[in-house]
Design goal:
Helix 4 packs antiparallel against helix 5 and helix 5 packs across helix 6. The two termini are about 15 Å apart. The protein is built from seven helices and four strands; from the N terminus they run βββαααααααβ. By secondary structure, it is α+β, with helices and mostly antiparallel strands. Strands 1, 2, 3 and 4 form a four-stranded antiparallel β-sheet that branches. The longest helix has 16 residues.
């Protein structure tokens, strides 16, 4: 499973074949592992998010879920709340409290288009974990450890594993839409 419950990380599979580790709360990591186990994900290659019958969720499921939620909660429909809306709101909060570089890393943006300064604005997994911990009010193991200062790029490297698996691309190359994430075998929602 592309989940590290001890370090609070999930491996995101993005467009263009890129992958990267994203900090998530330890509570979420525990719940995701429980969900996967209950719904029949046993192999490391099994899809994490699944229907009750054990089939992997599809991207269309998320569209349908937000439509259903909007029927039950009028404010969701009134404000147009979707996964994209939640992502935008989260990234705005991170940018306002932690700065542009950390918001870019949180979002998985690795492109260098735009102002020249975007080439030099970098943050690492620990910076993203610190923002997550502040936002959730929950401690995160990577936020508590001193692993260097802001200025190093985030990567697909798991803190305890080699950087790349054969055939994978670096997270900073090959993505036409680096901000759009595909979670665990084709799921399209941010976690964290």
């Amino acid at each position: 499973m592309d989940l590290d419950t001890d370090r609070g990380l999930v491996l995101l599979r993005e467009k263009g074949g890129t992958t990267r580790w994203q900090p998530i709360s330890l509570d979420l990591a525990t719940r995701l592992a429980e969900h996967a186990r209950i719904r029949g994900a046993v192999l490391p290659t099994d899809t994490l998010l699944r229907y009750r019958n054990g089939r992997p969720l599809t991207g269309r499921r998320y569209d349908h879920l937000w439509h259903r939620i909007g029927h039950h909660l009028a404010w969701v429909a009134a404000h147009g709340v979707t996964v994209h809306w939640l992502r935008h709101t989260t990234l705005t909060w991170v940018e306002r409290h932690f700065g542009y570089g950390i918001a870019r890393a949180y979002a998985g943006h690795t492109d260098t288009t735009g102002p020249a300064t975007t080439t030099y604005i970098r943050a690492n997994l620990q910076d993203v974990a610190k923002a997550l911990a502040a936002m959730t009010g929950q401690p995160h193991p990577l936020a508590m450890a001193d692993h260097g200062s802001t200025g190093t790029s985030t990567s697909t490297k798991h803190p305890a594993e080699p950087l790349m698996r054969r055939g994978e691309q670096r997270a900073d190359r090959g993505s036409a839409h680096p901000g759009r994430r595909h979670l665990i075998h084709g799921m399209s929602t941010p976690i964290g």
